[in-house]
């Protein structure tokens, strides 16, 4: 009887290992080529990041902006678009030993990232070329 119990336990472990290692899980999200331009008040954005965020799932695809252009891949569907330009700025206050003198800080206003109103629809069967002309709100 002990041998039968060991055989059953071993069979169960092998089955669990096969099922657990089958590679099936969450399917990969299909991504499609996207490209375009980004300008700020009519001037190409020299550098930064653009992020295509799914309105439905929150899935995000980010890519670099260089000389006002971006190119990469994003999942199809309606997307909220966020823009980011991070610059190193001198930390306020006296220097702290072991801490950097400059810290990264977002240089674009929230209207272009966390509070963005920019949107785009990425399609799986067509051209995804976008033009974003960011306009700063008067202060």
Task: Describe the model.
The structure is a single chain. The chain is mainly β and 139 residues long. It has a domain of 94 residues: Immunoglobulin-like. Helix content is 14%, strand content 45%. Strand 1 and strand 2 form a beta hairpin. The radius of gyration is 24 Å and the shape is globular.
Structural class: mainly beta
Oligomeric state of the chains in view: single chain
**CATH fold assignment of the domain at 31-90 and 101-134:** Immunoglobulin-like
The low-pLDDT segments are none
Task: Look at the structure and give the mean pLDDT.
Answer: 85
CATH architecture of the domain at 31-90 and 101-134: Sandwich
Order of helices and strands: HEEEEEEEEEE
What would you call the shape? globular
* Fourth CATH level, the homologous superfamily of the domain at 31-90 and 101-134: Domain of unknown function DUF4458
| Main β-sheet description | 8 strands, mixed
């Amino acid at each position: 009887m002990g041998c039968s119990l060991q055989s059953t336990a071993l069979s169960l472990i092998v089955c669990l290992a096969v099922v657990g290692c089958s590679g099936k899980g969450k399917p990969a999200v299909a991504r499609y080529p996207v490209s375009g331009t980004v300008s700020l008040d009519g001037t190409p954005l020299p550098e930064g990041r653009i992020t295509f965020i799914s309105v439905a799932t929150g899935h995000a695809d980010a890519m670099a902006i260089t000389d006002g252009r971006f190119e990469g891949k994003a999942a199809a569907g309606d997307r909220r678009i966020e823009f980011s330009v991070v610059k190193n700025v001198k930390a306020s206050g006296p220097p702290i030993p072991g801490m950097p003198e400059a810290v990264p800080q977002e240089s674009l206003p929230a209207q272009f990232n966390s509070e963005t109103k920019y949107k785009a629809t990425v399609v799986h069967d067509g051209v995804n070329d976008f033009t974003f002309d960011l306009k700063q709100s008067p202060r």
